[in-house]
Amino acid sequence: DGLDQGDHFSTIDMVFYIDKLLQDGPNRRDGEDAAGFADDTLLYTEATDLNEAVRKAEGIMTRPQGGMDWSKDMNAQFGIPKLVQMGVTRRREPNPEGPKKTRRITRPDMIINGTVIKPSQSTRWIGFLIDDELRFHIHAAHAVAKGQDYLQQYNRIARNAKGIRHRFMRR
């Protein structure tokens, strides 16, 4: 029957379930590694340029005993369209539109089993919004917007004319 998603044992079961992918998938001596929490898995590579990093990531997924083989062995389907790939670097390249101007380095596409995965500028992983230059501006803006939303809701409830008094709201 299986466990409910909120069940405490489901987290422990997931650790055992994805352990083979996290341990056997990446080749750590070649600059590959993996991390996971519940059903969020991060496979990452280190390389001298983004093209090499993308090829390594494709290899983690498609080589024998890689991610796709794990998926078949464990009867778990990867939602390939849900995969996110990011080339994380702060390197810049000259911008041909203007002298002394630079632009972000072009990030290459990843292809897994014939499906093209376009590079993303940001993604959410275990609660953090991570951008492809690791600057965390997106995460900070999201946190500020969330705080402002809570403050507006607080003020809406505690209106002077109709709502609860502020001193009671603090409790």
What does this structure look like?
The chain has 171 residues and is an alpha+beta fold. Helices cover 36% and strands 19% of the residues. The chain has helices at residues 8-24, 50-62, 67-73, 137-157, 166-169, and strands at 32-37, 40-45, 92-94, 102-104, 110-112, 115-117, 122-125, 128-131. The strands form four sheets. Strands 1-2 form a two-stranded antiparallel ribbon. Strands 3-4 form a two-stranded antiparallel sheet. The protein has a two-stranded antiparallel sheet with strand order 5-6. A hairpin with a 7-residue loop joins strand 3 (92-94) and strand 4. The radius of gyration is 22 Å and the shape is flat.
Short précis:
This protein has 171 residues and is an alpha+beta fold. It has 5 helices and 8 strands. The protein has a two-stranded antiparallel ribbon with strand order 1-2. Strands 3-4 form a two-stranded antiparallel sheet.
Pick out its properties.
single chain, 171 residues, alpha+beta, two-stranded antiparallel ribbon, 19% strand
